[in-house]
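Example 9 (inverse folding). The structure is encoded as follows.
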């Protein structure tokens, strides 16, 4: 409760937290199918209707309700973003901890592989992976996870190297604690703060990358709905039906803004230096 009070007591945390919570609720409702209309139902007689009391965000070229597809798309985009960041954070944490702990050859191999992955721009590396494996939801999850694994590895390895030389780690070794115990109970617990902030910021970028891949036709495939796919479908109708572009674009922008604001608040709350500066 103290942690939640700290977040909502922070200006950025309050705004970002509300936005993220709202999007999570929308994503859950969309995944459960609790939408104003069937996202796949084509009401041909109502094609390209502007927003009104029946269709809150209008309809698309096939007469499908944009609001329902948006809710479904938020659920799809958030699922891909959360899964990819979860995989990347887990893999990066394991690689970063073991590289810092065992050092020498293992550290050299891990970090050189991470350097190679970081040499590629994120979206180009994701495109390369999808070009090899093929488009699809799970391919997008794997591609985004691979893109962000080096970032988590570096975030974990640096502080872990510093913690490894601390007195409490030497004391744990003296008492005969195993490597796995020290890694999980001493090093990992002290890395929760930077990992939490990095996860929040990575979610924002994962949403953006997922939208980009779907926009290019390499992510979520029709008839499923995704925010990027909705943007792609609206390209040829921007003048005739601008709501098809405006609502998905706003959904992407506000979601990324929410995660960034929440990440900034978490950084201020969890970083002792930032807390002292604010005090």
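The amino acid assigned to each position is listed next.
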């Amino acid at each position: 409760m103290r942690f939640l009070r700290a977040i909502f007591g922070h200006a950025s945390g309050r705004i970002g937290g509300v936005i993220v919570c709202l999007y999570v609720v929308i994503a859950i409702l969309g995944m459960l199918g609790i939408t104003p209309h069937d996202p796949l139902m084509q009401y041909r007689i109502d094609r390209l209707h502007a927003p009104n009391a029946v269709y809150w965000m209008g309809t698309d070229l096939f007469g499908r309700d944009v609001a329902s597809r948006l809710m479904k798309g938020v659920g799809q985009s958030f699922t891909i973003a959360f899964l990819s960041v979860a995989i990347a954070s887990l893999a990066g944490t394991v690689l970063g901890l073991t590289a810092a702990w065992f050092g020498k050859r293992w550290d050299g191999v891990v970090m050189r592989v991470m350097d190679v992955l970081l040499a590629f721009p994120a979206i180009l590396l994701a495109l390369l992976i999808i070009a090899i494996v093929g488009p699809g939801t799970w391919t997008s999850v794997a591609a985004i996870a691979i893109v962000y694994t080096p970032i988590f590895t570096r975030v974990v390895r640096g502080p872990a190297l510093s913690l490894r030389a601390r007195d409490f780690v030497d004391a744990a070794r003296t008492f005969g604690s195993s490597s796995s115990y020290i890694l999980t109970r001493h090093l990992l617990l002290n890395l929760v703060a930077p990992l939490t902030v990095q996860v929040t910021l990575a979610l924002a970028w994962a949403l953006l990358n997922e939208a980009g891949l779907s926009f290019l036709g390499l992510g979520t495939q029709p008839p499923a709905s995704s925010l990027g796919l909705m943007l792609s479908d609206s390209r040829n109708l921007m003048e005739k039906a601008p709501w098809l572009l405006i609502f998905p674009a706003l959904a992407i922008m506000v979601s990324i803004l929410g995660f960034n604001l929440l990440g900034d608040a978490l950084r201020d709350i969890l970083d002792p230096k930032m807390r002292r500066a604010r005090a």
